[in-house]
Sequence to fold (209 residues):
Amino acid sequence: MKNEFVIADVLPGKLNALVKNIMSQTGSEDPNEAVRLVNSGEWIIKPNIPELKIWKTIKIGTGIKTADDFRKALKKAGCKIGDWGNDILGKPEFKTAEIKEEIDLVNISVAELGFKKGATRKDIYDRALQLGLEFCPAEVGPQLRLQYPDQPLGEWLLVAMEPITDSAGNLYVFIVECNDDGRWLIGNDGNPDNFWDGNNRWVFCRPRK
Fold:
């Protein structure tokens, strides 16, 4: 039995984003007609599934356990830590793996997740989870910084992790960045409503089967 996509009595001026998208794809200016085309099977909408290639595999649980251990390791490697990154690195929510393991990472843009005009952190996370990706352990932030010495100049990667609350009560996630001033581990706004542009890139974990 064919699954039906049903929305009844759509009123102009009260269109949701899904109906607007259907109208755009079908070319219909009448929302009810656009929905009818989908319901009748005259128009089939296929989701655009991004390719989730493994971008990089890193190790966690390498024996670097405490915030100070990471600070020393980063300094020794010639990396720098921003104030916000340093703050959440020292919070109890930042935990490290007990045993060494490899983690496969996917580097994907907000646009590649289906949000060409950008999206909130919550929508980005929800979409990634729907595709089978997972959040990164917080340890991925400093470990990726240490294990990515050849990061291209100008690259700026957000780590898709459960945000950590900083000393001021704000939510932050790690960012791994390379700029004219060197290779950095920094923090940035992890609020679920914070908006990210389509060209911003996030690093998620891809589970092994």
